[in-house]
Amino acid sequence: MSKPLADVLAITLLAACALPALANDPNNAQAAPTKAHQSALDWSDITANERARAEVWRLSATEWRRYRSLMEGIRGSISPATISPIEVLGIHARDDTERRRYAEQWAMMMREDTERILAFQHAYDQAGRLLYPTETLIDVARLPDRDDDQQTLLRTDRVLLFARPGCAACDAIVARLLAKLDRVAGVDIYLAGIAAGDDGAIRDWATARGIQPDWVRTRRVTLNFEGGALEQLGPVTSELPVLMRRRGGAVTPLLGSAL
Fold this sequence. Notes:
CATH class of the largest domain: Alpha Beta
Oligomer: single chain
Largest sheet: 5 strands, mixed
Distance between the termini: 126 Å
Order of helices and strands: HHHHHHHEHEHHEHEE
Helix content: 40-55%
CATH superfamily of the largest domain: Glutaredoxin
Strand content: 5-15%
Strand order of the largest sheet: 3-2-1-4-5
Structural class: alpha/beta
Number of helices: 11
Number of strands: 5
Shape: elongated
CATH architecture of the largest domain: 3-Layer(aba) Sandwich
Radius of gyration: 43 Å
CATH topology of the largest domain: Glutaredoxin
C-alpha cells in the first residue's frame, strides 16, 4: 500500500470514531432534555414554597396549578383557610374516576395522621405515668356536680327554700319560685331569724312577698320555722338562701340556676 493511500484510510477511520462522541456530546444542540431538566421546566412557574407544599400533599405540578386556580375562584371565597388541596381538587373533580382517586388519597392521609396522633397520645400517657406515678391528671372530687338530673325540676317535685327576713337574695328567690309555682308540686319555705311560735311575723313576711293565703291552705306553699331543719339535712352551707329539691323521699341540693 502506498503512503498516500494509507494516510487517507487513517483520516477516514479517525472521522468514523469521532461520530459517536459528537452524538453523545451534552453541548450538542440536538441532544434530548434530561428528566431533571424537564422536571425543572414543569415547576418553573411555581415558587419554592408552593413546591414544598405540593410535595407534602403528594401533588404534581399540574395538580398544584389546578388547585391554585380553583382557590382563586368561589372555593377560596367560601372555604376556610385550612381546607386542604386534596379536598379542593376532590370537590372540583372533573369525573368520577378523578373524584374517587382524590377521595382515596385523602382517606389514606387522614388515616396516617390518625395513627400519628394516637402514637403521640400513647407516648404522652406513658410520660405522664413515668413523671407523675402517684398523681392523677384530674381530681374528680373537686369537680362540680354537673348531673343534669340533679338540676331539673319535675311537676312531682317540691322545692325547699331556707330564707330569712331582711335578705334581698332570699326575696329574689321567692319571686322566682312563685313565678314557677305551677311547674312543681309545691314550695316549702323555712324561715330563720323568727322566734318559734311567732305566727304573726311569718304571716306578715309572706303577705309582703305576695304569697296568697289560698296557696297556704292548699299546701302549694308551706310556711315553716327553720328551727334547725337545714342542719338536719346534712352538711350544707349556713349562708342563706339555700335551695333543696325533694323528690320522693330524697332531698338534694338545688342551684338557683335551675329555677
